[in-house]
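A common beginner's mistake is to predict each chain separately and then try to dock the pieces by hand. The better habit, illustrated here, is to supply every component at once so that their relative placement is modeled jointly.
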Amino acid sequence: NAGVTQTPKFRVLKTGQSMTLLCAQDMNHEYMYWYRQDPGMGLRLIHYSVGEGTTAKGEVPDGYNVSRLKKQNFLLGLESAAPSQTSVYFCASSYRGLAGGPRPEQYFGPGTRLTVT
Amino acid sequence: AQKITQTQPGMFVQEKEAVTLDCTYDTSDPSYGLFWYKQPSSGEMIFLIYQGSYDQQNATEGRYSLNFQKARKSANLVISASQLGDSAMYFCAMRERSYNTDKLIFGTGTRLQVFP
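With all components supplied together, the output reads:
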């Protein structure tokens, strides 16, 4: 049981390049999330998904796209990277809602450190 | 809008002493959940403790307890018998729940340093 995994762990991009971050979970969770963490700030939600084939915008969605083609995977795409997207990206997953599942917390991946020059 | 406030950017505590990390929240939803996560220097987010808005008792998990004061909208984390390994960033978070969505809102964190 690997929990939540993220690929890659580190990446350096040049402005204008594109890339995709992969998140995978093996806990059969319905909900998946992408956050970014900037220095001196807590995590901010980029996009999330409440089930296979669904996605929704979070607090800071601009410049990012996501897809959830399979229940266990949640992809975050940057079509044209900008220096403002330099950040640490965390993926998380959870059971359905506060009232669903034995534990209500979100399980986090190890993070991806992205630098855009 | 829902909001989480952590007013202590940094805290120091001596090993074996107890420490309280403050967290206040704002929500109009009667059903919500409050969480504390630990982020050590290695970067991963580690779940510590959870308190539901309808829970009658304060949550406890080993050396961690949550001092939940609903009327004051506070959810302070108490760490008893601090250890050097407790040095980390600590984030308070609230789970916002509305139709077909379920999101965590994080505070800005408190950096705890435990000294010998």
